[in-house]
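WARN  no MSA supplied for this record, continuing single-sequence
INFO  ligand: pyridoxal-5'-phosphate
INFO  echoing inputs
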Amino acid sequence: MHLVLDAEEAGALALHHDRESLRRACERVMDEERATLRAGGVFGGLNEGFWARVRAVLEVLPGLKTRRAINATGVVLHTNLGRAPWPAEAAHAVANAAGVSMVEVDRASGKRGRRESAVSDLLVRVTGAEAGIAVNNNAAALLLAVAALARGRKAVVARRELVEIGGSYRMPEVVAAAGAEMVAIGTTNRVHLSDYEQAIADPEVACVLKVHPSNFSIEGFTGEPPLEELSALCRSRGLPLAYDLGSGVLVGAEWPALAGEPTVADALARGCDIVTFSGDKLLGGPQAGLIVGAKPLVERLRRDMLTRCLRLDKAMLAALEAVLSIHALGPDAAVRRIPALARLSLTAEELRPRAEALAAALDGRAFGWSARAVTCESRVGSGASPTAGVPSWGVQLAASDASGEQMAAHLRSLEPPIFARVQDDGLLLDLRTLGEQDLVELQALLLA
Ligand SMILES: *Cc1c(COP(=O)(O)O)cnc(C)c1O
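INFO  complex generated
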């Protein structure tokens, strides 16, 4: 790769493209060459054909609007920056599945197979549920669950769980879109078991829905029945209980950052029949909606017409399979290899030396801005632990001649763009959300 990047042609391309894009483009073409070699072909060297292919990659990829950025905001699952950064295995799985892939075929018989059987099997393995399926996102998962369980009938939800997630995704509208009638019970702050009992006496009620209040918390005189009691009540009436967990913790329940977050296993153990959660929140993978629970109910969802409308692309199935395979290796592997989990697991003390080193390198040398290491608070983001800050370390940048907003705009104009947090009329770079390569690149970009 050094020889490639030192070549005269690379120097010419470097005049019009940033070094990272150039390196990536060369790497792609080198990968193709290696594949050719492995297949018994020959490497033609750094000839005109080679550089034509590098130029072809550079013609498209670096200009894409949806492209890489550096997240120094301290929000680990930043929705506007694509939520969970994928493990390398997921990115490779996508590249590998992008061409022709065995997405819906049975290899032994050569006949059509079940589309997401690998993901379903892994969901069962990592959550301990009887069955599982995956759809486009958690919004879709909930829509499907309510439609399959209560279409044309009624679904019971507590008023304190009538969440708006953002945009037009509001619980009452989701239930209506699923073709069910919502029965809201209790008050804004409290719901009792007797409220549920009264509501489900109506024979038109077909399911009870619980929703994680992802992006707010109510404090003071609040209350709800324990999940075990609610699930026992539902079971005694033969009614399914579906729980939209939002983030859905699989790993890290013991970390202070995730204190009080419900885990998927716990929701199942306490008697929920259907549990839904996102793929790109605390699972740490691609956008997806995961549904796990009792086998007959999951099968009912699978047979619903909406499942076909909400199905996942082959590339996302491959990425999801890769991420779930890492989870299947156990919690240690998941924390080590899934970036979102690795970043959340870091303690402030682990981040401190990185912040101090970055501040020392930047102070006075990046656009003449001052830089000093400071303590700060990261956020989980995407609706997990909405009110809890995670103690962290960062670098506070200050300029005599620019506001925090102006400094932020300048960092966003770099290539790749850097997103930071405006704070104290300066800029804060939170070290928690920077991967190893991000950190090296950010430092080089700011010093250049
Ligand atoms: C985030 C969230 C959703 C939406 O999930 P997506 O995967 O973004 O569609 C739904 N419900 C809850 C409780 C959430 O936190």
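DSSP finds 19 helices and 15 strands in the chain.
INFO  checksum written, moving to next record
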